[in-house]
Amino acid sequence: MTTASAVSPRAARFAARLKDTEAHLSSVTLPASAAWLMRAREAAMERLKGMGMPEKRDEYWRYTDPARFVSSAPTPAEVFVADDEPVMFGGIERLSLVFVDGVFSPEQSDKIEGEGLEIERLSEAGEADIHWAKDLYGTLEAKAQNPVPRPLAALNTATATDGVLIRVTGRVSRPVSLVYLRSDANAEMVLHHVVRVEEGGEVTLLENGPGAARVSTVLEADLADRATLHHVRAMGRDHQRAGCTHIFARQGAESHFRSFTLSVNGAMVRNEMVVWLEGEGGVVHLAGAAMGDGDFHNDDTIFVTHTAPACESRQVYKKVLYHGAVGVFQGKILVEQSAQLTDGYQKSQALLMDESGQFLAKPELEIHADDVKCSHGSTSGELDEDHLFYLRARGVPEDDAKRLLVTAFLGESLDEIEDHDLANDIRLRLAGWLERHGE
Amino acid sequence: MSALDETLEVRDGVDRETVETVQSMAGKYKHGWETDVEMIFAPKGLNEDIVRLISDKNKEPEWMTEWRLAAFRRWQQMEEPDWAMLNIPPIDYQDQYYYAKPASMVEKPKSLDEVDPKLLATYAKLGIPLEEQKILAGVEGAEDAPRQVAVDAVFDSVSLGTTFKDELLKAGVIFCSISEAIREHPELVKKYLGTVVPVSDNYFATLNSAVFTDGSFVYIPEGVRCPMELSTYFRINAENTGQFERTLIVAEKGSHVSYLEGCTAPQRDTTQLHAAVVEIVILEDAEVKYSTVQNWYPGDEDGKGGIYNFVTKRADCRGDRAKVMWTQVETGSAITWKYPSCILRGDDSSGEFYSVAITNNMQQADTGTKMVHLGKRTRSRIVSKGISAGKAQNTYRGLVSMHPKAAESRNYTQCDSLLIGSECGAHAIPYIEVRNGTSRIEHEATTSKVDDDQLFYCRQRGMDEEEAVALVVNGFCREVLQALPMEFAMEAQALVAISLEGSVG
């Protein structure tokens, strides 16, 4: 018999993980920062040392191998030149901030200012010890470490080299557009953004571009009562890059948060979203469209917590997979006992275009309140033969018919984008991608 | 009894009576009596000597003893799983009896007549007419009688007697206790035991492999349609006894069998351990239907006592076109940890899983299924209904896996949860793994009180509210209950359907 004093294998494995993490982090130095920021970084480092880096055997990493995010240097990724399409969001009047390989480029960016908002870069924020972001930076990330540890987010908080701090006090008409360009096959980008939308404020945040060979971004969004945040993201077309992103959002009463992510290509992409609905009547809509051909691994991991009553959450994730591409969806709706009258909905669907595609999903519901309506649906399969036949019978060539059906399939996730111009821009990318890859 | 607690809030659409009846099911546990029968116990605790003793008591051959010891040694290296959504208090595996046997069974009775009448009375209370069936078995032309059921009853650790044995033998069917099978049919047991649930499969299955005391064995020869339904009744009677039964069912090519399983235990303050393993081997064109009504003692309203039910059930569809159907009605146990699974290995094989799980008071259930699609054109269907009341937690956990070679396979999953009261929880944790693009899966899950859309639909068609609610609640479990064989439908309805259906309309 094992004696009581012996360490259980589980405890021994955890101890070994912490030891490895310690060794891994020994070479990491925290970027020089203002005192308040340094404290937040050090706290994140401590958190990270307490939980350890992720491992493939973790339940939370069941379908995605974290190795490429954990390794000390990024796997080199060829720079992809995408000059066959108009500039993303180019037709939209916006405040554009450009990062190249994770480094801010003042020449390519607009002047950092805008009506209805305070905006500055993380690396320049507050030499003084007083800053509005002081109580936010790293706070939502820390809150999100429970019940599942997200060590890569803590690592980002500790080591982010730059980012944007935005405080919205009114209605901002000009979207803030973060553009991530890249020029180096080995570069790494670690950015941490904080957005605080004050009561009644409204802003649109755009993100686009591949960023670097390896990308880590964290966005902490704090929405006051009746605040609105629109977020649209297009992750760029580079094939070999790896990216791990986290969005943490805390929502006040009657606040609105909508986020859409377009993900085409990319060897290894993990997008995590964590949302807390803490004020009555809050609404969150999360959506994503992912298309991959061949060496493509796309993982959407979503965690929505309903704490306040009468909130609405909606998740719509669609993936189209060609030639062995892998789509992962882990989504969870947690309804706490206090969140009566919750309306929770979650949909994850994959279209497998040939027999080698893979779709791995874990759509979860955890419900502790009884007067709620929660449901999820998940499907995976080929294009519907009947639909195809219908179109073919009406003279539509096979390739066109397939494209039409794929576009219609993805359309439901695009419907979650409120702004028509933005939605159209995304639609254009989808059409272009299908033109190039759709057999 | 908190059932009539005035503070209980009754939601729209759920009749108070429904709530009360569901609540009362745990509180007024009707099988909560204990039979005063003199028992012989092996010493408490678990070590190699106990494993040897169990093997020895069952007069097992050497290879079986070794098999058990290997399992025991493996088990010592293993860790209790912690992934289920269950709050399991630490279990002291040394504080259990692993072998208990009624004293009157020391000399095996020649017939049921020699069995201690108190034991037979126990089964009469359970509603199994053993005696009556025994008489029926001796009557000429008994095979013409409609809906006979052969019963193997297991009392604590020991199989008590199997009815209809001769009848079955005529058809070539072997239905006996597993200990008897190990002695009488070692070649069959050796060939199949541990091949569906390997010895090291999981913590509780390994424990079972080491210490299982009895259980049932079923062998249906090629092309035989079992002339009657087979049934096992398990009862834990003695205090601090763990029950570890092992069931092995082998369905040869083209055979067919329907198997029923029921369980009860007396009411006690202390918790009791139950770790069973069921293995089913299904060959070409064979079909097995396995139905369970699990009604172990669930503990009292405060969560005191009750059975910890850790069960590994798995069917292996080895041949093409093999078919398995699991139906379970889970109303008892303080903790349920159970995932009857289907390995769909043969091409065109199919698996079905129908489940109703009711938890009340402090009960916890983490139950579901695994559908592993390996063969081409395999099909599976999962229908799970969870009802949670009181402070109970009810989790559906399921896996649907389409392997790369499982071309053109299909799965459909529907899991619905109904919440009654504001302190309970209902959860769904499905795993969907599609590794073949020509396969298709559909998964749906809902959690609600009685669904407003459904009510609206009925109301729109002219029903009054009460009729509408009756129809909706009626429909909630029906799909599963209808999958049960007649014999069990009665008991299951007493446990579930009547309580829900009778309360409305």
Automatic annotation (TrEMBL), chain A:
<feature type="domain" description="SUF system FeS cluster assembly SufBD core">
    <location>
        <begin position="185"/>
        <end position="409"/>
    </location>
</feature>
<dbReference type="Pfam" id="PF01458">
    <property type="entry name" value="SUFBD_core"/>
</dbReference>
<comment type="similarity">
    <text>Belongs to the iron-sulfur cluster assembly SufBD family.</text>
</comment>
<dbReference type="InterPro" id="IPR055346">
    <property type="entry name" value="Fe-S_cluster_assembly_SufBD"/>
</dbReference>
<feature type="domain" description="SUF system FeS cluster assembly SufBD N-terminal">
    <location>
        <begin position="33"/>
        <end position="172"/>
    </location>
</feature>
<protein>
    <submittedName>
        <fullName>Fe-S cluster assembly protein SufD</fullName>
    </submittedName>
</protein>
<dbReference type="Pfam" id="PF19295">
    <property type="entry name" value="SufBD_N"/>
</dbReference>
<dbReference type="InterPro" id="IPR045595">
    <property type="entry name" value="SufBD_N"/>
</dbReference>
<dbReference type="InterPro" id="IPR037284">
    <property type="entry name" value="SUF_FeS_clus_asmbl_SufBD_sf"/>
</dbReference>
<dbReference type="GO" id="GO:0016226">
    <property type="term" value="P:iron-sulfur cluster assembly"/>
</dbReference>
<dbReference type="InterPro" id="IPR000825">
    <property type="entry name" value="SUF_FeS_clus_asmbl_SufBD_core"/>
</dbReference>
TrEMBL record, chain B:
<comment type="similarity">
    <text>Belongs to the iron-sulfur cluster assembly SufBD family.</text>
</comment>
<protein>
    <submittedName>
        <fullName>Fe-S cluster assembly protein SufB</fullName>
    </submittedName>
</protein>
<dbReference type="InterPro" id="IPR010231">
    <property type="entry name" value="SUF_FeS_clus_asmbl_SufB"/>
</dbReference>
<feature type="domain" description="SUF system FeS cluster assembly SufBD core">
    <location>
        <begin position="234"/>
        <end position="476"/>
    </location>
</feature>
<dbReference type="GO" id="GO:0016226">
    <property type="term" value="P:iron-sulfur cluster assembly"/>
</dbReference>
<dbReference type="Pfam" id="PF19295">
    <property type="entry name" value="SufBD_N"/>
</dbReference>
<dbReference type="InterPro" id="IPR045595">
    <property type="entry name" value="SufBD_N"/>
</dbReference>
<dbReference type="Pfam" id="PF01458">
    <property type="entry name" value="SUFBD_core"/>
</dbReference>
<dbReference type="InterPro" id="IPR037284">
    <property type="entry name" value="SUF_FeS_clus_asmbl_SufBD_sf"/>
</dbReference>
<feature type="domain" description="SUF system FeS cluster assembly SufBD N-terminal">
    <location>
        <begin position="166"/>
        <end position="225"/>
    </location>
</feature>
<dbReference type="InterPro" id="IPR055346">
    <property type="entry name" value="Fe-S_cluster_assembly_SufBD"/>
</dbReference>
<dbReference type="InterPro" id="IPR000825">
    <property type="entry name" value="SUF_FeS_clus_asmbl_SufBD_core"/>
</dbReference>
